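During the first year of the project, the team set up a workflow for recording each protein of interest as an amino acid sequence followed immediately by a discrete structure-token representation. This format lets reviewers and collaborators read both layers of information side by side without switching files. As required by the reporting guidelines, we include two representative entries from the current panel. The first entry is reproduced here exactly as it appears in our internal archive.
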Amino acid sequence: MPVRCSVAHIRTPAEIAVHPTDGAPEHQLYLMCEDIEATITELRAKGITFTQAVRDENWGRVTAIALPGGGELGLYQPRHPTALELPSAAKAVRGKTGGKTGARKRKVARKS
């Protein structure tokens, strides 16, 4: 059964990183959050299972969510600056660009 949830601590916009490897090719997907402990608490209350304890990496605090199909989805709280910390990005995310961001979202929603 699919689990739907919204979490107040998940951040947008997304970031992408590409890193070289000496081993086999690999890909990972992570959701970014502002407060990993609060996000874990909120997700566990909604029935989400975690496959890893929170661990410290040089780029952030990391854990993983169990997916229904057997995979994992990473979750991390970054230590590095993010796009949200740029003044123009913060305004756009919060809808403080003179209403243009909100109007665009409404148009997209009507087409669906």
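The second entry, processed by the same pipeline in the following quarter, appears below.
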Amino acid sequence: MNPTGDDSSSTTVRRRVLFRCWHRGTQESDLLLGSFADACLGKLDEGQIDQLESLLDCSDPDLFDWILGASTPPREHDHEVLCLLRSHWAQYPGRSSRGTDLERQSRSDHP
């Protein structure tokens, strides 16, 4: 894949990642990851896309905890893209009401 995202392979990967971000299975995860992908996917380089894909292989409760700061991610997932996700969520419009719902869900998933 070329870092500028110009080739068809890069386009295919980005489309696949965008789809995965918007089709997680719950509205909360779709909103969190999908809005991040809409805002940032075009700016990510090949390595960052690989990092995002590795996060997409994780469970939603784990991702919520890591993004919301409820728990520390394992070393292999504590990387630049997770920091970008945290920053995106911190700046997300309307976060206060949605953030509360996500935080409640995260806590209820982990007794």
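For the second entry, the following points were noted during internal review. Residues 8-109 form a domain with the DNA polymerase; domain 1 fold (CATH 1.10.150.250). The chain has one domain: 8-109. Both points are flagged for discussion at the upcoming steering committee meeting.
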